[in-house]
Amino acid sequence: MTGDITIKALDKVGAEDAEYLVSLIRSIPGFPKEGIIFRDFMPVLADARGLDVLMRALEAALPVPADEFDSIAGLESRGFLFGPALAHHLGKGFIAIRKAGKLPPETIGESYELEYGTASVEIETMAVRPGERVLIVDDLIATGGTAKAGADLIEKAGGKVAGFSFVMGLDGLDGLAKLGDVPSSMLVSMPA
């Protein structure tokens, strides 16, 4: 435990590296609106050691073995930042799950609620092969709305969600419950 952050699967990289990575996560109150604490993990990506620890921890904490999924889908926007690197390291392809209106026509969309409003995500209609097994990654799970919408998109496109991998989770919002019995992992948890 580091302050208000509880180390979960991050312990697989050792206590010193775990503490170092956690020290890079910033908490910014009042963003994007009053009453929300934004958990900023961008300093992790800007730090060579932090990024190395993150990638090793994500691989060590995969919710299913790497041979049980074919590709990795990253949720916009921070899932885009480490998802392709993890996919490359594991010899997998990468699927972009984008915010609505960011892709050319011929998309599949899904709307969802989040802790401070509503939003929609999309993928290209041909992004997922029939039967493709997909690991969905993102930096944070809060209410689970974005992750659930991403999973629904993968399934609409003919794929199967093999698991979810998150860097951080917010306590008390029950986001993992929204994902059902699909295997999930998170490296750290913290108060909402």
From TrEMBL:
This is Adenine phosphoribosyltransferase. It comes from the Bacteria. Pathway: Purine metabolism; AMP biosynthesis via salvage pathway; AMP from adenine: step 1/1. It is an enzyme of class 2 (transferase). One of its GO terms (biological process) is adenine salvage. The keyword Chloroplast does not apply. InterPro entries: Ade_phspho_trans, PRTase-like, PRTase_dom, UPRTase/APRTase. It catalyses: AMP + diphosphate = 5-phospho-alpha-D-ribose 1-diphosphate + adenine. It is found in: Cytoplasm. Residues 68-165 form the Phosphoribosyltransferase domain. It comes from Bifidobacterium platyrrhinorum. Keywords: Cytoplasm, Glycosyltransferase, Purine salvage, Transferase.
